[in-house]
Amino acid sequence: MKNKFVVSALMIILSIGLIGCSNSSASENEKTLVMGTSADFAPFESRNESGEIVGFDIDLAKYIADELGYNLEIKDMKFDGLIGALQTEKVDMVLAGMSATEKRSQNVDFSTQYNHSGEMFVTNKDANIDSLEQLEGKTVGVQLGTIQEEGAKKIQEKVDFKMKQVDTSSTLIQELKTNRIDVAYMDKAAAKGYIKEQNLGGFEDPTSSSPGMAVAFPKGSDLKEDVNKVLKEMKESGKLEELKKEWLEDLE
Ligand code: ARG
Protein backbone atom coordinates (compact mmCIF):
# COMPACT_ATOMS: atom_id res chain seq x y z
CA MET A 1 0.00 0.00 0.00
CA LYS A 2 2.56 2.48 1.19
CA ASN A 3 5.00 1.44 -1.55
CA LYS A 4 2.42 1.91 -4.27
CA PHE A 5 1.81 5.43 -3.03
CA VAL A 6 5.52 6.26 -3.06
CA VAL A 7 5.89 4.86 -6.57
CA SER A 8 3.01 6.86 -8.00
CA ALA A 9 4.17 10.01 -6.20
CA LEU A 10 7.60 9.50 -7.71
CA MET A 11 6.10 9.02 -11.16
CA ILE A 12 4.14 12.23 -10.85
CA ILE A 13 7.24 14.13 -9.77
CA LEU A 14 9.20 12.58 -12.62
CA SER A 15 6.65 13.49 -15.27
CA ILE A 16 6.34 17.06 -13.99
CA GLY A 17 10.11 17.25 -14.25
CA LEU A 18 10.00 16.00 -17.82
CA ILE A 19 7.33 18.46 -18.86
CA GLY A 20 9.39 21.24 -17.29
CA CYS A 21 12.45 20.09 -19.21
CA SER A 22 10.82 19.84 -22.58
CA ASN A 23 9.36 23.32 -22.22
CA SER A 24 12.69 24.97 -21.71
CA SER A 25 14.83 22.81 -23.97
CA ALA A 26 17.07 24.51 -26.50
CA SER A 27 15.25 23.05 -29.49
CA GLU A 28 12.04 24.67 -28.29
CA ASN A 29 13.78 28.07 -28.11
CA GLU A 30 15.26 27.65 -31.57
CA LYS A 31 11.75 27.44 -32.92
CA THR A 32 11.12 31.12 -32.24
CA LEU A 33 11.64 33.60 -35.02
CA VAL A 34 12.41 37.10 -33.75
CA MET A 35 11.14 39.80 -36.05
CA GLY A 36 12.08 43.46 -35.80
CA THR A 37 9.67 46.17 -36.90
CA SER A 38 8.85 49.83 -36.37
CA ALA A 39 5.17 49.91 -35.47
CA ASP A 40 4.48 53.47 -36.57
CA PHE A 41 3.53 52.70 -40.13
CA ALA A 42 -0.10 51.80 -40.76
CA PRO A 43 -1.34 49.85 -42.69
CA PHE A 44 1.90 47.81 -42.58
CA GLU A 45 2.52 47.86 -38.81
CA SER A 46 0.93 49.96 -36.10
CA ARG A 47 -0.59 49.53 -32.66
CA ASN A 48 -4.35 49.16 -32.30
CA GLU A 49 -6.36 50.56 -29.35
CA SER A 50 -5.37 47.62 -27.18
CA GLY A 51 -1.69 48.23 -27.91
CA GLU A 52 -1.33 45.14 -30.08
CA ILE A 53 0.85 45.43 -33.19
CA VAL A 54 -1.25 44.75 -36.30
CA GLY A 55 -0.99 45.23 -40.06
CA PHE A 56 -0.11 43.77 -43.42
CA ASP A 57 3.50 42.96 -42.47
CA ILE A 58 2.36 41.36 -39.22
CA ASP A 59 -0.09 39.02 -40.95
CA LEU A 60 2.54 38.26 -43.56
CA ALA A 61 5.16 37.46 -40.90
CA LYS A 62 2.70 35.29 -38.96
CA TYR A 63 1.89 33.34 -42.10
CA ILE A 64 5.58 32.86 -42.93
CA ALA A 65 6.44 31.78 -39.37
CA ASP A 66 3.52 29.37 -39.35
CA GLU A 67 4.48 27.80 -42.67
CA LEU A 68 8.04 27.32 -41.48
CA GLY A 69 6.96 25.97 -38.08
CA TYR A 70 8.25 28.82 -35.91
CA ASN A 71 6.71 30.89 -33.14
CA LEU A 72 6.86 34.58 -33.96
CA GLU A 73 8.20 37.13 -31.50
CA ILE A 74 7.92 40.78 -32.47
CA LYS A 75 10.37 43.45 -31.32
CA ASP A 76 9.23 47.02 -31.84
CA MET A 77 12.02 49.56 -32.38
CA LYS A 78 12.87 52.79 -34.19
CA PHE A 79 13.06 52.37 -37.95
CA ASP A 80 16.62 53.68 -38.12
CA GLY A 81 17.76 51.00 -35.66
CA LEU A 82 16.48 48.03 -37.67
CA ILE A 83 19.50 47.51 -39.93
CA GLY A 84 21.78 47.62 -36.87
CA ALA A 85 19.55 45.09 -35.07
CA LEU A 86 19.98 42.72 -38.03
CA GLN A 87 23.74 43.26 -38.19
CA THR A 88 24.13 42.46 -34.48
CA GLU A 89 21.67 39.56 -34.89
CA LYS A 90 19.32 40.89 -32.23
CA VAL A 91 16.56 39.94 -34.65
CA ASP A 92 16.31 37.14 -37.24
CA MET A 93 14.39 39.18 -39.78
CA VAL A 94 12.78 42.57 -40.32
CA LEU A 95 9.40 43.33 -41.84
CA ALA A 96 8.85 47.07 -41.66
CA GLY A 97 7.71 48.15 -45.09
CA MET A 98 11.42 48.28 -45.80
CA SER A 99 12.38 49.02 -49.39
CA ALA A 100 15.06 46.71 -50.76
CA THR A 101 17.62 49.33 -51.76
CA GLU A 102 21.11 48.65 -53.17
CA LYS A 103 22.62 50.60 -50.32
CA ARG A 104 20.93 48.51 -47.61
CA SER A 105 21.88 45.35 -49.52
CA GLN A 106 25.49 46.05 -48.63
CA ASN A 107 24.65 45.38 -44.98
CA VAL A 108 21.67 43.01 -45.01
CA ASP A 109 20.12 40.40 -47.31
CA PHE A 110 16.64 40.85 -48.79
CA SER A 111 13.95 38.36 -49.75
CA THR A 112 12.11 38.74 -53.04
CA GLN A 113 9.89 41.83 -53.01
CA TYR A 114 6.35 41.49 -51.69
CA ASN A 115 4.87 44.94 -52.27
CA HIS A 116 5.51 48.26 -53.98
CA SER A 117 3.98 51.64 -53.12
CA GLY A 118 5.89 54.75 -54.26
CA GLU A 119 6.10 58.11 -52.49
CA MET A 120 3.78 60.98 -51.60
CA PHE A 121 3.97 64.48 -50.19
CA VAL A 122 1.32 64.94 -47.48
CA THR A 123 0.08 68.45 -46.64
CA ASN A 124 -2.68 70.06 -44.62
CA LYS A 125 -5.91 70.26 -46.57
CA ASP A 126 -5.84 73.99 -47.37
CA ALA A 127 -2.08 74.20 -48.02
CA ASN A 128 -2.13 74.66 -51.82
CA ILE A 129 1.11 72.80 -52.27
CA ASP A 130 0.78 70.35 -55.14
CA SER A 131 4.01 70.29 -57.10
CA LEU A 132 7.72 69.90 -56.43
CA GLU A 133 8.35 73.58 -57.29
CA GLN A 134 5.93 74.64 -54.60
CA LEU A 135 8.12 73.01 -51.96
CA GLU A 136 10.47 75.99 -52.39
CA GLY A 137 11.04 77.72 -49.03
CA LYS A 138 8.90 75.17 -47.17
CA THR A 139 9.84 72.73 -44.41
CA VAL A 140 9.59 69.09 -45.44
CA GLY A 141 9.56 66.38 -42.77
CA VAL A 142 10.86 62.84 -43.24
CA GLN A 143 11.28 59.78 -41.03
CA LEU A 144 14.89 59.14 -40.01
CA GLY A 145 16.64 56.35 -41.87
CA THR A 146 14.00 56.00 -44.58
CA ILE A 147 14.50 56.14 -48.33
CA GLN A 148 12.33 59.26 -48.22
CA GLU A 149 15.03 60.97 -46.16
CA GLU A 150 17.54 60.14 -48.91
CA GLY A 151 15.06 61.05 -51.63
CA ALA A 152 14.34 64.44 -50.08
CA LYS A 153 18.08 65.21 -50.07
CA LYS A 154 18.16 64.53 -53.82
CA ILE A 155 15.14 66.75 -54.49
CA GLN A 156 16.82 69.48 -52.41
CA GLU A 157 19.49 69.69 -55.09
CA LYS A 158 16.82 71.11 -57.40
CA VAL A 159 14.32 72.76 -55.08
CA ASP A 160 15.37 74.77 -52.06
CA PHE A 161 13.46 73.63 -48.94
CA LYS A 162 14.33 72.91 -45.30
CA MET A 163 14.31 69.32 -44.13
CA LYS A 164 13.27 68.11 -40.68
CA GLN A 165 14.03 64.53 -39.65
CA VAL A 166 11.88 62.83 -36.98
CA ASP A 167 11.90 59.36 -35.40
CA THR A 168 8.50 58.00 -36.35
CA SER A 169 5.97 58.56 -39.10
CA SER A 170 3.25 59.25 -36.51
CA THR A 171 5.37 62.15 -35.22
CA LEU A 172 5.64 63.34 -38.80
CA ILE A 173 1.86 63.67 -39.09
CA GLN A 174 1.71 65.31 -35.66
CA GLU A 175 4.30 67.87 -36.80
CA LEU A 176 2.27 68.55 -39.92
CA LYS A 177 -1.01 69.03 -38.10
CA THR A 178 0.59 71.43 -35.63
CA ASN A 179 2.24 73.36 -38.51
CA ARG A 180 5.80 72.64 -37.42
CA ILE A 181 6.39 71.29 -40.92
CA ASP A 182 4.56 72.16 -44.16
CA VAL A 183 4.88 68.81 -45.86
CA ALA A 184 5.51 65.19 -44.83
CA TYR A 185 7.31 63.06 -47.42
CA MET A 186 6.50 59.37 -47.01
CA ASP A 187 5.51 56.02 -48.48
CA LYS A 188 2.41 56.31 -50.64
CA ALA A 189 0.32 53.59 -48.96
CA ALA A 190 1.04 54.98 -45.49
CA ALA A 191 0.37 58.52 -46.75
CA LYS A 192 -2.98 57.57 -48.25
CA GLY A 193 -4.04 56.07 -44.95
CA TYR A 194 -3.21 59.26 -43.06
CA ILE A 195 -4.84 61.49 -45.70
CA LYS A 196 -8.06 59.53 -45.47
CA GLU A 197 -8.13 59.06 -41.73
CA GLN A 198 -7.02 62.56 -40.74
CA ASN A 199 -8.54 64.57 -43.58
CA LEU A 200 -5.25 65.83 -45.03
CA GLY A 201 -4.18 66.72 -48.57
CA GLY A 202 -1.22 65.77 -50.69
CA PHE A 203 0.23 64.87 -54.07
CA GLU A 204 2.18 61.98 -55.52
CA ASP A 205 5.90 62.29 -56.10
CA PRO A 206 6.26 62.29 -59.89
CA THR A 207 9.97 61.45 -59.64
CA SER A 208 9.91 58.51 -57.25
CA SER A 209 11.45 55.27 -58.45
CA SER A 210 12.01 53.40 -55.21
CA PRO A 211 12.36 49.61 -55.08
CA GLY A 212 9.64 47.42 -53.55
CA MET A 213 9.42 46.19 -49.98
CA ALA A 214 11.12 42.99 -48.88
CA VAL A 215 11.91 40.99 -45.76
CA ALA A 216 15.43 41.77 -44.50
CA PHE A 217 17.85 39.29 -42.87
CA PRO A 218 21.35 39.37 -41.40
CA LYS A 219 23.90 38.87 -44.18
CA GLY A 220 24.24 35.20 -45.08
CA SER A 221 21.15 34.07 -43.15
CA ASP A 222 19.77 30.65 -44.21
CA LEU A 223 16.30 31.90 -43.49
CA LYS A 224 16.20 33.91 -46.72
CA GLU A 225 15.70 30.88 -48.95
CA ASP A 226 12.97 29.46 -46.71
CA VAL A 227 11.12 32.77 -46.69
CA ASN A 228 11.49 33.12 -50.46
CA LYS A 229 9.86 29.71 -50.87
CA VAL A 230 6.90 30.77 -48.74
CA LEU A 231 6.59 34.09 -50.63
CA LYS A 232 6.62 32.23 -53.94
CA GLU A 233 3.94 29.87 -52.72
CA MET A 234 1.89 32.85 -51.44
CA LYS A 235 2.14 34.58 -54.83
CA GLU A 236 1.04 31.44 -56.64
CA SER A 237 -1.83 30.54 -54.31
CA GLY A 238 -3.25 34.06 -54.21
CA LYS A 239 -2.65 34.34 -50.43
CA LEU A 240 -0.46 37.43 -50.90
CA GLU A 241 -3.15 39.11 -53.01
CA GLU A 242 -5.68 38.26 -50.33
CA LEU A 243 -3.57 40.02 -47.66
CA LYS A 244 -3.13 43.03 -49.96
CA LYS A 245 -6.88 43.20 -50.46
CA GLU A 246 -7.44 43.07 -46.74
CA TRP A 247 -4.93 45.78 -45.75
CA LEU A 248 -4.03 47.89 -48.79
CA GLU A 249 -6.92 47.87 -51.22
CA ASP A 250 -8.97 50.78 -49.82
CA LEU A 251 -5.89 52.94 -50.18
CA GLU A 252 -5.10 52.31 -53.83
N1 ARG B 1 9.70 52.23 -47.43
C1 ARG B 1 10.45 53.22 -46.70
C2 ARG B 1 11.86 52.73 -46.46
O1 ARG B 1 12.15 51.58 -46.62
C3 ARG B 1 9.80 53.61 -45.40
C4 ARG B 1 9.57 52.50 -44.43
C5 ARG B 1 9.15 53.00 -43.06
N2 ARG B 1 8.73 51.91 -42.23
C6 ARG B 1 8.27 52.02 -40.96
N3 ARG B 1 7.90 50.93 -40.35
N4 ARG B 1 8.23 53.18 -40.37
O2 ARG B 1 12.73 53.47 -46.12
Automatic annotation (TrEMBL):
Residues 32-250 form the Ionotropic glutamate receptor C-terminal domain. Residues 32-250 form the Solute-binding protein family 3/N-terminal domain. It is found in: Cell envelope. Keywords: Lipoprotein, Palmitate, Signal. SUPFAM superfamilies: Periplasmic binding protein-like II (SSF53850). Residues 1-26 form the signal peptide. InterPro entries: Iontro_rcpt_C (IPR001320), SBP_3_CS (IPR018313), Solute-binding_3/MltF_N (IPR001638). One of its GO terms (molecular function) is ligand-gated monoatomic ion channel activity. Its main location: other. GO terms for cellular component: cell envelope; membrane. Belongs to the bacterial solute-binding protein 3 family. This is ABC transporter substrate-binding protein. It comes from Pontibacillus marinus BH030004 = DSM 16465.
